[in-house]
Recover the amino acids of this structure.
């Protein structure tokens, strides 16, 4: 079932107790989208299938709070990778802005430009004025929405995601 926004619905998963993220009220499958990586390559829904993924939405990449959060996810890159969880940053800013930031911060993960706004719309990460909200979503291996992190603390959100990922995907 595909709605107007191209978002498919799916069944809600049964999740373990002790998670810090909030499960969605209704199931949300991977939306139809295109995004541009900081290196100029195009990303599609298939890029979020195969391993769990987290999408961190950034309203303004160059702000102090965004830099803190970007660095926090970089510091947890290796343990998240051991759980096979991929990290992707999402903004409205073009590769001309994201590429120097990736290089300056030496990020191991990709920063995408949400070209059509489909990712922000599907995961309710768009404010009424059209700007992005600071939000993180965790997707399962099929790209279905598992957990949402709203009103996040940029210092602790990466640790929350790591703990939840360990509960969900740890061996």
């Amino acid at each position: 079932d595909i709605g107007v926004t191209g978002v498919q619905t799916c069944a809600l998963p049964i999740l373990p107790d002790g998670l810090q993220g909030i499960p969605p009220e209704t199931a949300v499958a991977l939306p139809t989208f295109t995004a541009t990586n900081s290196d100029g390559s195009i990303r599609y829904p298939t890029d979020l299938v195969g391993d769990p993924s987290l999408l961190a939405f950034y309203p303004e990449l160059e702000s102090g709070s965004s830099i803190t959060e970007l660095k926090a996810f970089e510091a947890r890159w290796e343990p998240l990778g051991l759980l096979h969880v991929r990290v992707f940053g999402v903004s409205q800013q073009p590769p001309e802005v994201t590429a120097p930031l990736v290089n300056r911060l030496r990020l191991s993960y990709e920063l995408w430009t949400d070209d059509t706004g489909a990712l922000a719309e599907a995961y309710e990460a768009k404010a009424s004025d059209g700007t992005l909200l600071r939000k993180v979503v965790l997707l399962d291996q099929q790209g279905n929405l598992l957990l949402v992190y709203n009103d996040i603390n940029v210092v602790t959100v990466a640790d929350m995601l790591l703990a939840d990922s360990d509960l969900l995907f740890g061996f």
